[in-house]
Design goal:
The protein has about 140 residues and is mainly alpha-helical. Helix content is about 80%, strand content about 0%.
Length: about 140
């Protein structure tokens, strides 16, 4: 009888722990989504004030952080990769999280991110940075 009651209490505690972990995960995810939106809003503000390189670089950082979080939430093994956008995108594609069209879109965004990191402002175009920011938003909404 004592063993049975103990098992019931143990089951209750295990269920409570599972529920707590699930709730904490949901809270963490919501906070991360809010931070992502805030950072993308900052990138849009930079773009509006013609700081193209800064806007693009910030959007690239947001994309990289989001992809790593997606990989972690899906238990994708990132191995020893440097966790660049391309590396993480390849791992997500390999594990079936990203389809081919999303992966190709990511590669286009990576090209613009690289320009922001390597080039001076004269090479960058407002339209490209705008597409980058909205592409990051679109991918963030479709990937969770």
């Amino acid at each position: 009888l004592i063993s049975h009651k103990f098992n019931i209490q143990l089951g209750i505690l295990q269920a409570a722990e599972s529920r707590l972990n699930s709730s904490l995960f949901d809270i963490r995810r919501q906070v991360q989504a809010d931070v992502l939106r805030s950072e993308l809003d900052a990138a849009k503000e930079l773009l509006e004030h013609t700081f193209l390189r800064g806007a693009g670089a910030l959007a690239g950082v947001v994309l990289q952080k989001h992809l790593v979080l997606v990989a972690e939430s899906h238990d994708v093994d990132l191995g020893n990769c440097q966790r660049s956008v391309s590396d993480v995108a390849d791992a997500l594609k390999q594990d079936g999280i990203l389809d081919l069209s999303s992966w190709r879109e990511l590669q286009r965004l990576v090209t613009v991110i690289s320009l922001c990191e390597e080039c001076n402002e004269e090479v960058l175009r407002h339209e490209d940075i705008e597409k980058l920011i909205f592409g990051v938003e679109k991918l963030a909404d479709s990937l969770s």
